Amino acid sequence: MLIDSNAYIGHWPFRYRRFNTCKALLDKRMEEFGVDVSLISNLDGIYYKNTQKANEELYREINSEQRFKDRFIPFAIINPIYNGWKDDFEVCRKQYGMKGIRLYPKYHGYDLMNTHCIELVKMARDHGMPVAFTLRIVDTRPSSWHDIKEEWALSDVIPMIREVPDAKYMILNVANSTNLDEEETAILKEADALLDTSGRGMNNITELLSTYGAEKFAFGTHSPILDYCTGLLRIESLYEEEADQNAIEQMRSQNILDHLEV
């Protein structure tokens, strides 16, 4: 089984994207590359002032065809400094059946350690929902002058893990430094956290595997922003002495299944 832990539908305001609908993602990417299931959010929610509208769009699209409901697992985008965010969370969880949340402090204009953000992470924890942080959406160097100019390194999300150590975390598109000090490394090792394989920081995946173990990683594409196969090649190209078949299967699907408790 192969599960993509990091994909999107929707539009990016500064760049044309292909394969950004459920139909295109399923027919032109997932089927071609043998992906059984994708965890998806709606890119539009990163720039909508009211992120719940993006969650509504995602819910409607997934429910427009039965096959979409079988192949996509939705994650809600929540902005914890926007009025009504607690209601948004409950609607997404109860009515829309979303299995996790994605947070974008850089784009929505709040500090990671904002009290409302911490409260939201704890709410997700209490309902067994993973909290996903994306370290990079697009490379800031060739991006539009209207886009943000700051990106995260792996160390930037450690304060939240330290604050709420018993939540489930997903750290997506690890594109910048993966260097952590001794204390930070210990925190990440102890955390129930998954890093997806899409980001260029995963070029040193062999070293990361030796530090954290295969149980900390999951296949991801960051589609439709990045190419569709590099995240998988980082797993499939590992030598036996770097990752045995059990470790490969963990990263292909089992870690995500365990994370979502399905």
From TrEMBL:
<dbReference type="Pfam" id="PF04909">
    <property type="entry name" value="Amidohydro_2"/>
</dbReference>
<protein>
    <recommendedName>
        <fullName>Amidohydrolase-related domain-containing protein</fullName>
    </recommendedName>
</protein>
<dbReference type="GO" id="GO:0016787">
    <property type="term" value="F:hydrolase activity"/>
</dbReference>
<dbReference type="InterPro" id="IPR006680">
    <property type="entry name" value="Amidohydro-rel"/>
</dbReference>
<feature type="domain" description="Amidohydrolase-related">
    <location>
        <begin position="66"/>
        <end position="251"/>
    </location>
</feature>
<dbReference type="InterPro" id="IPR032466">
    <property type="entry name" value="Metal_Hydrolase"/>
</dbReference>
